[in-house]
Structures
1.
Amino acid sequence: MTALPDDAGLVLTRLARSAIATQLNLPAAEPDGEAEWLNERGAAFVTLTIDGRLRGCIGSLEAWRWLGEDVRSNAVSAAFRDPRFPPLSRDEFAQVDVEVSVLTPPQELSFTSEADALAQLRPDIDGVILEAGSHRATFLPQVWEDLPDKRVFMAHLKRKARLAADYWGDDVRLHVYQVSAFHE
């Protein structure tokens, strides 16, 4: 994907909000014109919050469809299909804040131990994908704000993957990625 333009944040957050509004049968303010860069493959997460509390977060780790389509689809999923929350209501729509994070391609991390892996992680920069057998989970780089300690971050990521907080085995694989995050 080419570099994102200066107005990417406005376009992406408006696109996400518009997709949610359409699902709620509310007026939708689409971005002005269709930016060509939205028609390139891209991976994005859409995070919804109300009063600073998570209200939904769904995204793609790999760029497998056009960025504009990915943002629209993930916005709708974050609002209505995140299993941790009930579907977003019309009343909540005006209160919800939208964040769109565009991901770089994940890069596999090479390590010899958990301590080695932790030493390589860059708080506030790296998003992390943890895989172990059939277990998989990710934290966006923004999660470092709430979990700045590397060991605590990793323990929470393991629990999110439905593993024990102290689990470490030969089957553990880690990938890191970075994001360009845009808030309304």
Note: DSSP finds five helices and eight strands in the chain.
2.
Amino acid sequence: MRAIVLAVIAVQVGLAHPARAEESAGSDRSISDMLPLFARNHCGEIKDPADQLFCGDPELNSAAPRLASAIAERLNRLPNRRLAIEENAAWIRDRNSSCGIFGRQSVASRDLKSVRECLLRETEERIEILADPNFDCLATNTTAGVLICSDPSLALAKTELNEHVLALIAKLKENEAREAFAEFERWGRERDRKCDLANKDNVPLQELPSSEGCLTDYFTSRLAEVAAAKGDPKRVFGKHQLSPSPDADAVDLCVAQIHSANACEDFLSVNRVHQIDHQVAEQNATVIAAVEMVVLSPFTACSPIASSCTGTCWDLRSGKPKPSPGNRDNFLVGYRVRIEKTFAFQKADGGSWRCNSSALQPVEVGVATSGP
């Protein structure tokens, strides 16, 4: 039973693995007595106060599997799962604060009833809204997503492309499917750079340059590419290893190759790649780029995952890179990591460019934050 409860809590934030605590949460003893399932489900092993309540309260414990199912169903209908996981993590933070739960601070016994009722109400509302397919469009948190959602023809084209892509990826083996999902997300980042929508999230829509034509062209070309594959996913995904130019698109592909080689997809997803500077010679080139990532599943801030997938260890208290081992703090879901690095490229036969950087180390600049 304990394993089931912990797994359900993990799915609430879109995690791939159960989020089991490494130490006691130090909760008020009277609360443990007030929660009927607390002892039986070993809820004291859970750090997060909200998750403790879902573990120990019968009604919340009953609602948790329904919430997990609603989240899983939404993830299964979205090719770009990273945005859904990130949005869900933000919802959990907002839910907790609105219900009076702040960080790891224990819930006082006198507040237990009101906090419990708030969590139950928020959960039931969340289950209902997740079932509405229109929410997938409305919940977007990027400028391109807002523009697409506001235009019926673009929204329809996006839905059609998503359906075709999901059908193709469903034919792949697990590892191939994970890489295909990552590649599909890279399509979107390339689209945003090409349509001048990258790094424009805080710009009012009326101040943006007209991008409808560019977005229309993107969907038209991608739908044509998918149709030409005639149901064969390997004619769409996993083909591109070289880049036409040493630029941000090339860096994006390079980072994808590094992440794939280090099995980073379960823990991190690339959010943006931005070119800062570049130098191009006849046969070699370097590109200085900023790479922004979002955490999808917890991992230790100084670990092989941190080194391989972000390029360095981290001090989460300062949000700065820390090359030598330090503490055992964990990156949690929704954390954002931004690094700057110089990527090396070499011209290949035919004039395309091959990435010579096989690792994200060394990181020249970096910052990690716990929210947007």
Note: The chain has three domains: 2-136, 140-239, 241-372.
